[in-house]
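Summary of Year 1 activities. Much of the first year was spent building the evaluation harness for sequence design. The harness presents a backbone, in tokenized form, and records the residue chosen at every position. We chose the following record to illustrate the format because it has been used consistently in internal testing since the harness was completed.
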């Protein structure tokens, strides 16, 4: 090779390329104060090895390495537990729910209820009295309802709970009256009145007691009147009128009179009518005028018991039948048949007097 073939700028170009490679290699490596010398030595050795590589290729490699380094330096990884969406969802649901539950529990928590049997009533507050009164009234019997009324009725008229208490007292008084009315419907008038009168007379609802008792007494008196009227018809053997009168008991607004007394009255009318038919049959036999028929008539009349409404009529008919027998005996005596007359007279029963 001649001196003419060697470019004049070869040595300067070579030196420029080596300097550029050195500077780029220093940019690619992180700065470390303790290893500056080692890195410089490494860069020099690498620059010698890479002298034959084109400058464009070196620049491409250096740029990609630099971008990877920047990307690695700018990325920040979250801890693993922060990526669990199930955990965060559970926490977000559990914490507010727990707070809401505790808040509701505190709001709904009631003070402990007083022990009513051990309360010293002269010092008890109106709230305690009302609470214990409500507990007593919940038993729904006469004694407990009256006890509830007694617990609250004596509170002052200007008490803030007065209107509420008056409403309860009226309600409990009506309940006592309902129980008393049930007793009245069962046919126990006096017991019903006694229950109603146990309601204190100084409560505003007592006027209901007086009205209710007056109504009961009116209904009872009407029932007795109808029953007595039917009995009068039976004694006079007016059976149709007796049944029509008994039917009026079914419209008297009392279960006892509408059912029990009505059934009792209709049964009495039926039995009395049967006895009336016996008495009518006896009268028919007596009209025949024979001794045997008169004796049969007397026996039929005697079969009517004293509990029958026809009994008085039957007792009136027996002496009448006996007198007819005596009349027959007298006629036998008048016809000079003394033995027959005596025989007929001896057959007359003592009931004929």
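For this record, the design step produced the sequence shown next.
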């Amino acid at each position: 090779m001649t001196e003419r073939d060697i470019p004049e700028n070869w040595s300067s170009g070579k030196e420029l390329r080596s300097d550029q490679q050195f500077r780029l290699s220093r940019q690619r490596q992180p700065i470390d104060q303790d290893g500056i010398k080692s890195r410089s030595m490494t860069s020099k050795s690498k620059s010698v090895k890479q002298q034959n590589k084109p400058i464009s290729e070196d620049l491409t490699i250096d740029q990609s390495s630099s971008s990877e380094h920047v990307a690695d330096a700018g990325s920040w990884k979250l801890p693993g537990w922060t990526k669990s969406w199930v955990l965060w969802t559970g926490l977000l649901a559990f914490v507010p729910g727990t707070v809401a539950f505790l808040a509701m529990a505190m709001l709904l928590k009631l003070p402990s209820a007083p022990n009513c049997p051990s309360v010293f009533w002269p010092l008890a507050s109106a709230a305690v009295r009302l609470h214990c009164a409500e507990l007593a009234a919940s038993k729904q019997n006469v004694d407990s309802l009256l006890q509830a009324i007694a617990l609250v009725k004596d509170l002052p008229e200007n008490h803030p709970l007065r209107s509420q208490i008056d409403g309860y007292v009226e309600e409990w008084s009506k309940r006592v009256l309902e129980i008393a009315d049930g007793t009245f419907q069962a046919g126990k008038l006096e017991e019903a009145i006694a229950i109603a009168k146990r309601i204190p007379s100084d409560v505003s609802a007592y006027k209901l007691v007086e009205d209710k008792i007056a109504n009961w007494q009116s209904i009872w008196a009407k029932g007795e009147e109808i029953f007595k009227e039917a009995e009068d018809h039976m004694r006079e053997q007016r059976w149709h009128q007796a049944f029509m009168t008994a039917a009026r008991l079914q419209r008297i607004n009392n279960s006892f009179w509408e059912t029990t007394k009505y059934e009792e009255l209709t049964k009495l009318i039926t039995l009395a009518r049967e006895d009336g038919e016996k008495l009518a049959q006896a009268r028919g036999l007596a009209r025949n005028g024979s001794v045997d028929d008169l004796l049969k008539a007397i026996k039929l009349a005697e079969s009517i018991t004293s509990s029958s409404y026809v009994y008085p009529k039957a007792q009136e008919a027996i002496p009448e039948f006996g007198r007819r027998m005596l009349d027959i005996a007298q006629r036998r005596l008048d016809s000079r048949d003394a033995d027959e007359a005596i025989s007929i007279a001896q057959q007359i029963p003592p009931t004929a007097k």
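DSSP finds 14 helices and no strands in the chain. Quantitative recovery figures across the full test set are reported in Table 2.
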